[in-house]
Amino acid sequence: MTRVPGRVGSGSQEHTFYQRVYDLVRRIPPGRVMTYGQVARAVGKPRGARMVGWAMRACPEDVPWQRVVNSRGGLSTQSLHAGFNLQHALLEDEGIEFDSAGRIDLSQFGWQDDTWR
DNA sequence: AGGTTGACTGGGG
DNA sequence: TCCCCAGCCAACC
User: Distance (Å) from CA A65 to C1' C2?
Assistant: First the structure.
């Protein structure tokens, strides 16, 4: 069974790093993407890009994990799939386009949440 | 307690 | 632009 990042606080109203990541990712609209580093900075963890990746690996069902890509507009989930990449398929279904090198133009599909605390 | 492992990044060559 | 790598840091041996 995949381990899910635990809550740091105990039942308090405090948001953990993971909760904040999930809350932000849930706000990314279909057809748009954010990078791991962008998400990390937005939740106050500027050097936590790898942790965002960890969080995506064990995220709840309702989190659109496919909308988080690496800083080069590429998918970091390639090694998880053999032949077929689910993330690539899900993003194309949302209207996102990939160039010949398999990358997304972040200036076109990138997203930043201005209303995010 | 200490070493390894990444769904990462930015900078250097 | 691509490849390489040090730095990164929680989770997992």
Answer: 27
